[in-house]
Amino acid sequence: MRLATVSARLALPALLLSLAACAPAPIYKAAPGTLAATPTQVAQAPKQYARGQVIWGGRVVAVNNLPDHSEIEILAYPLDSSQRPKFGAGGNGRFIALLPGYAEPMNYPNGAPITVDGQLAGSRAGKVGEADYVFPLVQIARSHVWTAEEMRSGHPNINFGVGLGVGIR
């Protein structure tokens, strides 16, 4: 019995380490002073967060190409440790990502998961449907549209429990 206890004690740390190793590293290095505020918090007090660095993500809502720049409206979600949007966690408001030049809408399809790294550039009043809304603006330094495979990677398909289970994928 003592051998089983020792084996279990050694196996648990190894299992936890192997699960942690599955998670990809963050794609962007957070600069010192990167804000932890959500788009909703920034929209409520934009001057308090002026020119702050952010790493935000969510789902692409729309792409609007203007004569000298493009705007990507994003419905924000919290990010996981790899900076992928966590869609089951509930939204954190909306923001507009600003890009110089033309953004090909096919590269930013509606509903696509995205993470951006950039600097706050003020806010703008607008509408979501018929409702008035304040959109924080983010001047993007870098952006990443996640593929379905990237969204799945690092999420081990391991479940613990007792009983019988059937899963269909």
TrEMBL record:
* Coiled-coil parts of chain: none
The alphabetical list of record keywords is: Lipoprotein, Signal
Read off the InterPro entries from this record: OMP_Slp
Pfam families assigned: Slp
Signal sequence coordinates = 1-23
The record's listing under PANTHER family reads: OUTER MEMBRANE PROTEIN SLP
What name has this protein been given in UniProt?
Answer: Slp family lipoprotein
